[in-house]
Each structure stands twice: as structure tokens, then as C-alpha cells.
Specification:
The complex is a heterodimer of chains A (about 140) and B (about 375). Chain A is mainly β and about 140 residues long. In chain A, the strands form 2 sheets. A 6-stranded antiparallel sheet of chain A has the order 1-9-8-4-3-2. A 3-stranded antiparallel sheet of chain A has the order 5-6-7, with no helix packed on it. Chain A is elongated and about 55 Å long. An 8-stranded parallel sheet of chain B has the order 1-2-3-4-5-6-7-8. In chain B, helix 11 links the parallel strand 7 and strand 8. Chain B starts with 17 loop residues before the first strand and ends with a helix. In chain B, about 45% of the residues are buried. The chains are: A mainly beta (about 140), B alpha/beta (about 375). At the A-B interface, loops of A face loops of B. Chain A: This is Rieske (2Fe-2S) protein.
Chain lengths: ~140, ~375
């Protein structure tokens, strides 16, 4: 496991995403209401570029016609077959134990902490007065 | 206890070699066919539009999973609907997926279902030429389908005979939602022309005949309707068998395109059972129905059932016949199948090559 500084927070605006390459892997980083999540870009079903899919919420119902919409922006839907993946866990909604996308640990850290620690900033020159998204791969 | 496969096989090391039997080309704009349409019909489309047997001109009977029923990564950067850019089709599909030959199935305008038969006939002619000029001549991997306005049998036969000798065309396309079931005698001259021109009939999901989308009536949900393609295709196969088409035209080859596979063994078993008891009602059907299906009907793989175990899928292929399966992707539609991952089964290299390539090569006589 190594830590990689992949972006500054202002490079991933609210409810937007950024696709990065780390050690040859494509990883999507999502800003969901100010929280950051990272998942692999390969749909485990048939291999589509998952992170290009729509970001949606969770639709549930207690019965026909009685819809609830929650968790706005926390689900990612595959651009091909529509599988819904939970950005928090990488699990798919319909087959959570069987079909899941790799999810990665992310932290937001101030530039000062990065410089004081022993991290190498691989993608960006780290300056002290900014907030950085740090990915653990 | 059965084994659940958590991971499907990774992309194999050998180079993919694929014949894709179902690619949907689109027009950037309607005016793309104007050069091939008579002035009268250009004006007709401008003034009146097209007219199908359902409400809401140009709409589908149900909303689709995605706009344009498309993969959302298939929109060309330069604009236009998915399937309209040859460059993107090459970059996104033909090149990376090893497509050596791709069969075009244009669906726009649904010419076979036009209420105005003459408009339908004019559109099929124009779209047939458009496929050759806009696609096949620009990309040697692609082949065209002869579109026909099947409710006008005379015009359909003329179009089949006109295109029959042209190697750019590999099949005749019919959408299964016809005015009457496809086995009815009004359509027989089409089958006769198909045999005469040595072209298979491909029956691809679609058409708007005004009848409810399922045998049980109109559905509320897209998902509910989406399954109905299997019912529709079963009705088509039963009609071709029991109305006597497959007996009358033993050289006729039929592809059921995009209708699924899981139902085939059960339909065969039911038809055979009923034939053993009710044969005297249809004495023109001389063999058990499954024999006609086994000899004259092929099935495309997408959208394939995805059973939980490899063994179930292999059993299904055993029952249908491995040589009756033609691989298709449905590019650029939302339920596209990637040739590397479409078969959730432990196939041998030879089986995989048969499904992805060899069967179609033989079927379409591509040598």
C-alpha cells in the first residue's frame, strides 16, 4: 500500500468526478456532497468504464407507486447495463456480495501535513496552504 | 451443491476474432437519406412525417433504459446519436473488440411498420442504398441488411431481387411485430425470394403493429415489456413451423435476433408434445416441430440469459445446438455485450471461437 496525492480538492467540484491513473489502474474519485470516494473504473459485470456512468440516488418503494428517493448522488450506475454501485462500499445494489467494484481509501489532508509526513507527492507539487485528496492503493 | 462463480474469466490472451451479427447504425440527421429518396417522399416526410401504428409519432411504446436505448458512453463528441459516427464505432467497438465482420441492422423509421405502404417501400429502398454508401463502402468490415416493407409483399420481393446479387448484403431484415403472424401465406413470396437469392431472413426485435406489446396486454414498465421479446419470438417461431413455412421452404434459414435463448428448449418440447397429439390439425407439418427449428433456425446471443452457474449455460447451449448460436453485441445499445465477457461459462477455446466467429462465418457463407 502506498499513498498517492492525486488532486487538490478544488479540482473535483461538488458532485463531480475525476478519473485518475495510479500504478496503471484507472480510478474514479467522486465528490459526493463534500465527501470523497474512490472506485475502480472497470465494471465487474462486463468491463465497461464504470466511472463514466450516471451518478444517481437510491430509489426504493414500500409498494407500487410509493417511491422514496434518498442518498442523492451516492450511487454510480454503469453506462452499459445500468448496474447500481454504492460509492461508499463498492457493492452493487442487487448483488452486494457477488458483484462489487474495488473501492479505495481516500483521505483529504492539508498540504502542511503532507509535507511534514514522509509522503511523496507523485502527481502534484504539494504546497502547504491547500487541501489534497490522498488515495491509498 | 452448485458452485457460484464470483469472477468471470479475465480477458483471454489470444486475439479476439469476432463476427458481430447485430450493430445498429444511426443517421446524424434525417437528411442523410435524402440523396436516395424521391423528391415526393422528402416532401412527404417534411410535411406529414412518418406514421406508425401507435400513438406519439417517432416515440417508442415504452421509455427505454437510456435515451436512444444507448450506452451512455456511445455519444460521438461531434454530436449526433450513438451509432452515427463510423470513427467512434471503429475506435470504441470494431477495433478493440476484434470485429472482423459486422452486420448492420438499421432500425430508424421502422419502414416495415409504416402505415403508408408506399412511404415504407421508399424508405426501405433509400435506407438500403444508404447502408452501402454511408457504411459498407467506407468500412469493409461492415455488411448491410436488406430492409423490406413486409406488408407490401410485391414490393418486398422486388427489393430482395434487386439487392440479392449484391455481396454488400448478407441478410433480409424483418421485424417480428407484423400485421399478421409471420407464417401467414401473405408473406410467403418473401420467403420464396429469400431462398431464390440465397439470403437468410433475420427477425430482429421490433416493429409497431398496433397490437399490445405482450400477449397479456400493454405493460406498465419497461422491464415488464423488455421480457416480451421472448414471447414475441416464440410466437414467430411457432407460426413459421405450424403455418408450414419451414416445411414449404426447407432451404429457408432464419435468425432470431435479440430474442434471448432460454425459451428455445421449452418451446421445442411443448411444440413436439402438442404435435404428437394434435398433428392431424396441421398435416402439412410433417416432422416434429423441433426438427424444423434445429435445422432451419439460428439464434443470436445478445441479450443472453446469465444463469448463476456455468453448467446451466452450457446445458442450454447443448440443447439448442452449439452450431445454431450467432454472437451479437447490439452496439451501441445499452445492453451491449462485450465479446470477452458475454459468456458466463467456462468455455474451451474451440467453443469460444465457434460462438464468436465460426458459426457466423458458415451461416453467412463469408468465404
Amino acid at each position: 500500500m502506498a499513498r498517492h496525492v492525486v488532486a487538490t480538492v478544488d479540482q473535483i467540484p461538488l458532485d463531480q468526478r475525476l478519473l485518475v491513473q495510479v500504478n496503471g489502474r484507472e480510478i474514479g474519485i467522486f465528490n459526493v456532497g463534500g465527501e470523497y470516494f474512490a472506485v475502480g473504473n472497470r465494471c465487474p459485470h462486463e468491463g465497461a468504464s464504470l466511472c463514466k456512468g450516471r451518478i444517481v440516488g437510491l430509489v426504493e418503494a414500500t409498494g407500487p407507486g410509493d417511491y422514496q428517493y434518498s442518498r442523492r448522488g451516492e450511487l454510480l450506475r454503469c453506462p452499459w447495463h445500468g448496474w447500481e454501485f454504492d460509492l461508499r462500499t463498492g457493492r452493487s445494489w442487487c448483488e452486494p456480495d457477488r458483484t462489487k467494484v474495488r473501492s479505495y481509501d481516500l483521505k483529504v489532508e492539508p498540504g502542511g501535513a503532507l509535507i511534514e509526513g514522509e509522503l511523496r507527492a507523485e502527481t502534484f507539487q504539494v504546497t502547504i496552504d491547500k487541501q489534497y485528496v490522498v488515495l491509498e492503493v | 451443491m452448485s458452485t457460484v462463480e464470483l469472477e468471470r474469466p479475465r480477458a483471454s490472451n489470444y486475439k479476439l476474432r469476432v463476427i458481430d451479427c447485430d450493430i445498429h447504425p444511426a443517421m446524424t440527421s434525417w437528411t442523410e437519406v435524402h440523396p436516395y429518396l424521391e423528391r415526393q417522399w422528402i416532401e412527404h416526410l417534411t410535411v406529414y412525417g412518418s406514421h406508425l401504428r401507435h400513438a406519439f409519432s417517432e416515440a417508442l411504446s415504452h421509455p427505454r433504459m437510456s435515451p436512444d436505448a444507448a450506452r451512455i458512453d456511445a455519444y460521438p463528441e461531434e454530436g449526433g446519436p450513438p451509432g452515427s459516427s463510423l470513427e467512434l464505432m471503429k475506435k470504441q467497438h470494431l477495433d478493440p473488440n476484434g470485429i472482423e465482420v459486422g452486420m448492420l441492422i438499421p432500425l430508424r423509421w421502422n419502414p416495415g411498420s409504416q402505415r403508408n405502404l408506399d412511404l415504407g417501400v421508399a424508405l426501405t429502398r433509400a435506407m438500403n442504398t444508404w447502408q452501402v454508401e454511408r457504411w459498407v463502402k467506407q468500412e469493409p468490415r461492415l455488411r448491410a441488411s436488406v430492409l423490406i416493407a413486409q406488408e407490401d409483399t410485391v414490393a418486398s420481393v422486388a427489393e430482395i431481387d434487386a439487392r440479392g446479387g449484391d455481396p454488400n448484403f448478407t441478410q433480409i431484415l424483418i421485424l417480428p411485430k407484423t400485421d399478421e403472424p409471420l407464417g401467414r401465406r401473405r408473406y410467403w413470396p418473401i420467403y420464396e425470394a429469400a431462398v431464390r437469392n440465397n439470403l437468410p431472413i433475420t427477425i430482429h426485435v421490433g416493429g409497431t403493429n398496433g397490437h399490445p406489446s405482450t400477449g397479456g396486454g400493454w405493460t406498465s414498465y419497461y422491464m415488464e415489456e423488455h421480457h416480451s421479446v421472448a414471447q414475441t419470438m416464440q410466437a414467430v417461431v411457432a407460426s413459421l413451423v405450424f403455418e408450414g413455412v419451414l416445411e414449404r421452404f426447407p432451404e429457408l434459414r432464419v435468425v432470431i435476433m435479440e430474442g434471448g435463448l432460454g425459451w428455445v428448449p421449452s418451446l421445442n418440447a411443448r411444440m413436439d408434445k402438442h404435435w404428437a397429439r394434435l398433428r392431424s390439425e396441421v398435416p402439412h407439418v410433417k416432422k416434429p416441430p423441433s426438427e424444423y427449428v434445429r435445422e432451419q433456425v439460428w439464434f443470436s446471443t445478445q441479450p443472453m440469459e446469465e444463469p448463476a452457474t456455468s453448467a446451466e449455460l452450457i446445458d442450454l447451449f447443448d440443447r439448442i445446438g452449439w452450431d445454431r448460436l450467432l454472437f451479437s453485441t447490439d452496439y451501441p445499445h445499452w445492453d451491449f455485450d462485450d465479446p470477452r465477457y458475454a459468456f458466463r461459462a467456462n468455455l474451451t477455446k474451440a467453443q469460444r471461437e465457434q460462438l464468436l466467429y465460426e458459426n457466423a462465418r458458415k451461416f453467412y457463407r463469408l468465404d
